[in-house]
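Weekly sync notes, structure subgroup
Attendees: PM, AL, DS (notes)

Item 1: joint prediction request from the bench team. They want all two components modeled as one assembly rather than separately. Inputs as received:
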Amino acid sequence: MEMFASLARWIAEQPMAVGGTWAVIGSAVIGTLGALVATYVIGPDERDVSLTGLKLEVLGQIFSGLLVFVLVHGAMLQYDLRTLLDLEGRLLTGLHFTARRADPEGLGVLVERYARMVVERELPAIAGGRTDPATQGAFDDMLVTMAAAAAPVMAAADNTGETLAQLVDVRAKRLARSIPDPLMGYAWLGVAFATATTMAFASLVTGPSLFIQMLLSTMMSLAAVTIAYLAILMNHPWSGDMSISAWTIMDILRWG
Amino acid sequence: MTLTTEFLLWMAGAAFWAISGLIVVRYYLTDAELAGNNPGGGVKYMYFAQVFAGFAAFVLVQASDTRESAATAMARETAALRALVMVSSAGGLDGDGRIAAAVKDYGEAVAADEWREMAAGAHSPVAERRFDAVLRAFHNAPASLSSPLAAGMGSQLAVAAVAARNQRIDVAAGNAFNRMLWTAVGALALVSIAFNWALGSTSVFIHAVTTSMLTMTTAQMLHLAWAMGSPFAGTTPLSPHQFVALPGL
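Output from the run, pasted for the record:
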């Protein structure tokens, strides 16, 4: 299953223009080959157009259930991560203001260091399916130093403790949502199998015009492949052209 | 058993269900009798498939949400406890190391004992006692010696850990609705394949192959939902490694 998860990640990392081109070319090749094999290798009686056509409709409905799931999963992932990143950015910005007032060279620099590491190290590592221990170390340093800080401004800002605790919680949620679940590899296997089955069924449902059947099979394949491609992009929110931007955290670096 | 082995067994089971039904039905009914069912049976089958697909999509989303809730609760709980140890130590709340030791003991109890209990939908009394010990160690810490910021933050982290632990146990426990859901989706899947048995074909071979492929597609969806909906059991449970890695003395 890991192979399918890696393959999906690799697809998500490619530019959309390349992915879209391959979706069209691949669909055309599969549609053409399927129609040719069904016409010249399998006889007309063997194909049983009416019964296979009925099964193709049923398959399409069941496959749509799977596609709905991967799309909804991807959409929820994007929404959750955008919300968490926005919240983390806001908490970190508030903390940054307090830290800079209290101790710009010490605490302020620690907050900026953590923000820089999230943008430059952690997000690229997460896109590859890994965590970054160095960024976690930077976060721990910031937390421990602030907890021990006795600067009057830090003490005066009585919501700093609450902000830090919320930051721990939001960061944990962001990391948990960001690292892909290995079981999604299984979902991609299911999508690939259902797409292949759809094409096999579609190839069996042929008519008198080979050209029209090739065209129709290609369009069917393109519909399934395009939706699956979109679902792959949405389920990899840190990779490719549809990736989420960490601008709320980058703002801290700009102001710092 | 690995996920791949389990997947192959599910696929074999799906093919067996598809083929065995075809063999039995075709033994008793002739091709002509079966072919007569195609127009009426086909329309009903399509209606049934639409209802089933909608329900299966819901079950998949529900199962995925269960797994993600469990994973997120676990991440929040361990992050809060880890931060509690660091903040207590840095802020002067844990001079004697009692909080760190209690957290370490709790993490070990969760990994060694509670994970097994959660697979059965329960929770561990041992882990529960050790969690209480963590909270007691924090409440009994010498507040006068500590930084006010660390004390306030520690309270927030302890509350977050309590909430996350409760959520994790709640997800593991499940409810009667889950059992009803799995029964319904399992029965609907079996019936949706059984529709194929009542249809007539001109080629038995193609009919058997296409029915098997349809069954395997359905079985994959169900197996994926089952694997996702059982976050602490089966071949792909969530790992308690974050609890094992909790900092100690």
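Discussion: Chain A has eleven helices and no strands.
Action: AL to compare against the crosslinking data before next sync.
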